[in-house]
Amino acid sequence: MTKQVVAALILRGNDILCCQRTEHQALSLKWEFPGGKIESGETPAQALGRELEEELGIVAHVGREITQVLHTYQNGNSVNLHFYVVERYDKELQNRIFRDMRWVQRSELPSLDFLDADKELVQKLAAGELV
Fold first, then answer.
1. Is residue 131 part of a domain?
2. The model's pTM
3. Cα(85)–Cα(130) distance, rounded to whole angstroms?
4. Residue-by-residue pLDDT tens, the chain, 131 positions
């Protein structure tokens, strides 16, 4: 079964917020965009708002969906990622679950070791496409 997942491209000027998984998580120490699973009964935007509050302590103004990525990992798990733009949020960012968080210029995104499911999007963002 394909897991439905949402992720945020949180923008600050030309920078995008990137988060690093801890050594205790699956795919440890990989970089990703914040977000998580869509729970039963949630819209993707509601799920993203909940996840960003849980992970970062912010109240996000979820913008438009910019792309979807269907990815199957080598272990057979597949995810359907919905990426949304977040240009505004209330409250201060807090790192509640990640090993590291950093604002990264678009052109520098490919230098981080991102999850395989994010790599195509990372290349497009670095090239100035999408947002």
1. no
2. 0.94
3. 10
4. 899 999 999 999 999 999 999 999 989 999 999 999 999 999 999 999 999 999 999 999 999 999 999 999 888 989 999 999 999 999 999 999 999 999 999 999 999 999 999 999 999 999 998 88
